[in-house]
Q: What sequence folds into this?
């Protein structure tokens, strides 16, 4: 089972768009996928059609009230893609967890319990994708401890590139102190406009610094991707013939092919 | 003196790009401007050519060590534009301030002291622009308490629009409990691609919901704006003839004109 933290502390680089549509692409390819919304702004949950009221079961209940994951899960419109949703209460989570012993591994422990249950019930889980907020606080650290892989979503512009060294430092710290199994396995060039020299230069930099991890697939700019969340539909429901759909399907294919020849 | 919090909890909507270039435009129009970087990721500081080491005087020193603002200020390449910079220590600030009495008004008190000093020394200060991180935590609340105006930077896409009601709720809460003088005076359509129907629709929604506050000026997509930070230059140094330069100059003009006929 691959547990992947989708991360970049820079805002608006395409993390949520990636979790929603890569998750859907993998599920459409027959994989069983759990998406986890760890952002108090709950964009992923909204994208996948789940809009919770405060106090409804959510990632917050799991992190701060010890609720089992199974009690907070929601289905989505894509068969095979389940969601652990977020809602606004999660904005208090980092403060509440701050004084808790083992505060960085709360999500990991819940996830271990849940995946064990699933195995016992004969349910296969192939992918867990964790959508991180634009910060490197306790929520993102919980994601890095619960995951065994990191995918950095890198918008092909300056500020998103500039934050990478700090992100890599945090990953190393987590590897050293909390989660030796964590591995950077993917760098995804997102919102990539190939007509712009800046974008091509940044992509070149990514391929140079991360030759093994940078995906062949790039996610090009496609307004259909920006439109789809307002319809609470993934790109495959909203615009199945679009470039955005092709790109995320290709990314899923690349990730699955990589598993047959590790 | 206008103290403006430039805010939107959604990531990557153009807050930093706006503070840097609007600040520069106002300074070039003869205004005296203080820009405050309240984001631990310090993008604004980098943009304006100030890259601090940890422990160097910064917004963190002002918020958590009681350092006077004057001791942490830096000049920029634009005469009339000064910077209170950020650096990575600021990522610990929200946790450190959490238990402090009066934790929401630390910035306001420092700013009141500094502006009083400036007045006594015969220095005019016309604008204070505060760059907020992509969250509505203690740093953003400090900005809302220190400011008397709010400018919402709204990328013309779904998620940025979707977060507005929560943002307005936080502004009302601050008005009610901490800062009755705070007023929403500007909504700026940013990263606006007029060719896209989605963008035009979102702009229409903004003008409908905020008829008085939405600026006539929109900031169009212009790759020169995305390129300029990598050169640590504002748009006026990097590409003075560009659309981005014209848009931010027009925004400054609109804000200054509005002051003669309030
Ligand atoms: N490939 C793309 N083409 C066009 N627009 C895109 C693409 N990917 C994402 N977007 C749009 O860009 C904006 C930012 O994307 P998204 O919200 O997924 O980023 P994020 O990293 O999750 O942001 P945050 O840091 O705020 O959580 C959204 O309006 C989204 O619809
Ligand atoms: N008008 C524009 N045209 C083209 N690119 C832009 C424009 N405005 C901003 N950008 C680029 O879009 C990205 C996001 O902008 P910026 O960093 O200013 O947003 P932000 O709201 O400060 O983000 P964060 O929430 O992460 O602090 C940056 O790469 C920036 O260079
Ligand atoms: Mg997101
Ligand atoms: Mg910013």
A:
């Amino acid at each position: 089972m691959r547990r992947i933290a989708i991360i970049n502390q820079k805002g608006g680089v395409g993390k949520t768009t990636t979790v929603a549509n890569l998750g859907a692409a993998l599920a459409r390819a027959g994989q069983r996928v759990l998406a986890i919304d760890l952002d108090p702004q709950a964009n992923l949950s909204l994208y996948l059609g789940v809009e919770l009221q405060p106090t409804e079961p959510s990632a917050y209940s799991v992190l701060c009230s010890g609720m089992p994951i199974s009690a907070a899960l929601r289905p989505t419109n894509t068969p095979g893609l389940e969601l652990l949703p977020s809602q606004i209460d999660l904005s208090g989570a980092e403060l509440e967890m701050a004084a808790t012993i083992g505060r960085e591994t709360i999500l990991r422990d819940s996830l271990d319990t849940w995946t064990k249950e699933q195995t016992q019930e004969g349910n296969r889980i192939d992918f867990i994708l964790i959508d991180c907020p634009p910060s490197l606080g306790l929520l993102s650290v919980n994601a890095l401890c619960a995951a065994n892989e990191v995918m950095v979503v890198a918008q092909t512009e300056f500020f998103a590139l500039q934050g990478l060294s700090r992100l890599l430092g945090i990953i190393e710290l987590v590897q050293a102190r909390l989660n030796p199994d964590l591995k950077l396995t993917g760098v995804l060039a997102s919102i990539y406009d190939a007509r712009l020299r800046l974008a091509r230069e940044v992509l070149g930099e990514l391929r140079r610094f991360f030759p093994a991890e940078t995906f062949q697939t790039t996610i090009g700019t496609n307004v259909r991707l920006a439109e789809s969340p307002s319809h609470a539909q993934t790109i495959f429901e909203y615009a199945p013939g679009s470039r955005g759909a092709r790109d995320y399907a290709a990314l899923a294919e690349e990730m699955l092919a990589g598993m047959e020849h590790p």
Q: What stands out?
A: Residues B 15-16, 39, 43, 131 surround magnesium ion (ligand 4) (CB under 6 Å). The first strand of chain A starts at residue 2 and ends at 7. Chain A touches chain B through 33 residues (CB under 8 Å).
